[in-house]
Amino acid sequence: MPAGHDVQVAPSILAADFGNLAAAVGEVATATDWLHVDVMDGHFVPNITIGPPVVAALRRHSGAYFDCHLMISEPARYLRMFAEAGASSLTVHVEVGGTAELLAQMRDLGLGVGLACNPDTPFEAVEPFLADVDLVLAMTVFPGFGGQSFMPEVLPKIARLRAAIDGGGFRAAIEVDGGIDVTTAASVASAGARVLVAGSAVFGDPQPWGAVERIRSAAREAIAARASRM
Ligand code: DX5
Ligand code: ZN
Predict the structure, then answer these.
(1) Measured from the CA of 69, which atom of ligand 1 is nearest?
(2) Residue 230 CA: distances (Å) to CA of 149, 156, 170
(3) What is the tens place of the pLDDT at every residue in 161-190?
(4) Among protein residues, the one whose CA lies closest to atom 6 of ligand 1
């Protein structure tokens, strides 16, 4: 997790060339220690992407922090498989239910523990779990596909998460995912996000490593500007 209030950018390989994932991973390796891996099952979301074998294959090419976002209906069946494949953290969606048990299972597996919520899922759904997670992921698009437009209506929920985490003295980092680029990075960082997932804005750039640096700089500047106003 990023230390204190620093920012990390997690490139989403969903936007990379699936025929050449090892090369994509290499393109961002000097710019960030994080890699966001989008797992979709065709049930929780209308798309199918990556499973444990691909995570294991990527692990042979990378020592990065594999931030695995499980957009799947039955995560309990697969947590151990992702752990054994080389995931660093797993993030399950609060909408699938059974959250307390899933978080405990992830903790027992020795993984970073993440909890995600869709744009229309209220703050109150994740609030009871804030003390128990390393990462709370506020989706800024409806999950399923890359390249969608950022939803600014999620910003108030990010601010509420920031206030609740700081107020409670919790360690959870706030992550955002969907439509993040240099512009929206400033908005989400100002609202309180500290882990910024970016797919299209990174792998759609001819220099993915440069895009990571620019997104992180924009977020850091927004955090510094906000601090100087307070
Ligand atoms: C969407 C995925 C995202 C996606 C983001 O369901 O969870 O991680 O890759 O892509 P961009 O940055 O293109 O919106
Ligand atoms: Zn994601």
Answers:
(1) 7
(2) 30, 18, 21
(3) 999 999 999 999 999 999 999 999 999 999
(4) 143
